[in-house]
Amino acid sequence: METNVISLQSLTKKYNKFTAVQNVSLNVRKGDIYGLIGKNGAGKTTLFKMILGLSNPSEGKVSINGSSTQSELLKERNNIGFLIGSNFFGYLDAYQNIEYYRILKGIKDKNETIRVLEIVGLAGTKKPFKEYSMGMKQRLGIANAILGNPEIVILDEPVNGLDPQGIVDIRNLIKLLNEEYKMTLVVSSHILSELDLVANRFGIIDHGVLIKEVDKEHLQDSEKDSVIISTNNNARAMELILANFKLDEIKELNGKLELINGSIDTAEIVDVLVKNDLKVKEIYKVKKSLEDVYFHLTGGANSNA
User: Is 184 inside any structural domain?
Assistant: First the structure.
């Protein structure tokens, strides 16, 4: 039986007349890498802050490991690490910064600072934080998040502003924390292709509303695939296809036809067209990506997520 480590029930956050998060219900299961998707201002960070107790919900309920009372949540939140921005001393090195937070968090094991720095690849780094690359800063932030070996880790835009190598480093680190250290992670990112590589479950939030929650294995099932076809007479091909096949949608774009239907058989289409003396120049199926699903659900095309 799957265990939910985080459950949100009808969670709403209002600031006077502005509603930042509206009636959000979602579940993060033990062992998940949960990808939270939404453009800037969609409500991701507000949602994280309510989970962490940094902001109180206007309505609804937060449950962590089945606990929902204030006293229980206080205890459970001590077992959540998080990266929401970074707040380090520019003149201190990696060890000194993390040692400061180890003491602040009341972690008695003095080896814990070295342990987390080794995990993120910053052990032995002597230069001050102010001289770090963006990738190093994010890795130090993750080192702080995993101090004390928390069960749950929340990472808000961990690859934001990173170069390709930095993105790969964070991707591998997220996988390591999940697979080797058995941490459940909730990760937000505007780089949808990157979330697609690491997350096993997704929540799509837009204007404060959770519009879809889906497992990775069901992502393709959630949106119909497309068939792209080009012939010597697309107008006639469209007539024949509409007369012989049941489609959700068919449209012409850039000299090609796009057929929307996840179960359509390309061989059958070719057979009908060829029998009616049409020449099929090309035909292929297009699988829907996470980005396709996001833009379809939010009605966007070229905006950041």
Answer: yes
Q: How far is CA 113 from the centre of its chain?
A: 28
Residues 30 and 109 in one domain: yes
Domain that holds residue 151: 4-215
Q: What is the spatial order of strands in the sheet that 18-29 belongs to? A: 18-29, 4-15, 59-64
- 180 by Cβ neighbours in 10 Å (0-12 / 13-18 / 19+) ranks as exposed
DSSP for 71-105, written as a single string: HHHHHHHTTEEEESS----TTS-HHHHHHHHHHHT
Model pTM above 0.90 = no
- Evaluate whether 292 touches 198 at the Cβ level (below 8 Å): no
For tokens 């199926």, name the residue. 285
Residues 223-253: tens digit of each pLDDT = 566 788 999 999 999 999 999 988 878 888 8
Domain membership flag for residue 206: yes
